[in-house]
Every structure is written in C-alpha cells, then in structure tokens.
Design goal:
alpha+beta; Glutaredoxin; 8-stranded mixed beta sheet; globular
C-alpha cells in the first residue's frame, strides 16, 4: 500500500510538472508576442492577425494589361494608394519605396518582393499617365488604375481611405483638385493575404527594418 501511494504521488508530481511547463511555455510565448508586437509598433507596423485572402478585383496596369488578385500572389507586395498629381506625400513615399527596393538587392529578397501604386484618381490617371509617372522609379514597379468601385473595393479591404472629386474632403485648386487619402503602405503576403500595415513616416531604412522583422516573424 505505501508503495502504491508513492507511485501515485510520483505520477501526481509528474503531471503537475508537465502542466507547469506548459503554463510557463504559454506565458513565454505570450510575452514574446507582446515584445514582438511592441518592436513592430515602434517601426510603425500593425500586423494583421489571422488574415484571409483578399477578394478578387479587376484593375489595369500601366501597360493596359488586366491585373487581378492572382497577379499579387507569389510575392510580398508593397501597395501604396496615391495619384500622379499629388504634390508631396505620393512622390516622397514612392521615392522611399524606390530606395528601399534598391537596397533589397543586397538581401536576396528583391526577387520575391514587388511594389505597386494604385491610383485614387482614375479620371486623370490613365494607364499612360501611370506609365509616365513610374518612369522616375524602378522599371519593375506596377501602376494600377481602373474604375472607382474596383479601386474603392480593394482600398477598403486594405483599410485605405480616400476622397473622390465632389467629396467635401477634396480640395479644389486653380489647376484642378487634390485628393485626400491615407498614407499607409499595405503589405500583401505571397498567398495574397493582407499581412500588415506600415504607417508613415516612410523612409528606406525604416521600411527595411520593418520588412526584416515581419519576414523573421512569419
């Protein structure tokens, strides 16, 4: 009988140890996630938890070719919404993305990374206008335009907001109009899912640090 009690006690302690290890492991993972999210937050990154594939869309690239969800898959894609007449935010952001993309060549990540600009001003930003605008940047960058409902549908999936001509947010000037829009950069993973949002200010070093942290955490 005493022997049986010893065995029962041993089993009880063994089970307790296993449960304790499990609890401590869970706490460590939770703490690691908090620290990881804090580090990403410091870099202006909000990661999308349990993201699902985007709904399909139909846009047109700067060469007049159809562009849909399937064209996003297979690469990490940085997507910025702007317009070619934008005087400040758009050229600064695209320049930062251009510098960042050039630096990717040293990491070996350039081949599986893409940069896309989606126009929020399709009335003026024809495929030809997008092609002219992107001449100042990397030739592999993609410029997309199309119908407002398609652009707005994709933007809403990526938490991007923008005004349309006639909206009260749209500022009118002598040379036309400016469009208010979010300055976020959306990151899409190779499976076509919304992976993260990158907040401004955007510059190449910060983008590189954020991208490295996200790829390491993936």
């Amino acid at each position: 009988m005493p022997m049986t009690r010893r065995r029962l006690a041993f089993v009880a302690f063994a089970v307790f140890d296993v449960v304790l290890v499990g609890i401590l492991a869970g706490l460590w993972v939770a703490r690691s996630n908090v620290l990881e999210d804090r580090a990403l937050s410091d870099l202006g990154v909000a990661r999308i938890e349990q993201s699902e594939p985007l709904d399909d869309f139909r846009l047109t690239d700067q060469y007049g070719r159809a562009f849909s969800l399937s064209n996003l898959e297979g690469k990490w894609q940085f997507i910025f919404f702007g317009f070619t007449s934008c005087p400040d935010i758009c050229p600064l952001t695209m320049r930062a993305l251009n510098d960042f993309y050039r630096e990717l060549e040293q990491t070996g990540w350039q081949d599986d990374t893409g940069v896309i600009m989606v126009s929020v001003d399709p009335l003026r930003d024809t495929p030809e206008a997008m092609a002219d605008y992107l001449l100042s940047f990397d030739p592999t960058f993609i410029g997309l335009t199309g119908e407002y409902p398609e652009i707005a549908g994709l933007a809403s999936q990526l938490f991007i907001a923008f005004s349309q001509p006639g909206d009260h947010e749209t500022a009118h000037h002598e040379d036309g109009y400016a469009i208010a829009h979010s300055d976020y950069i959306a990151l899409i993973d190779p499976a076509g899912r919304h992976h993260a949002i990158l907040h401004s200010p955007h510059h190449s070093e910060r983008l590189m640090q954020a991208y490295a942290a996200l790829r390491a955490a993936d």
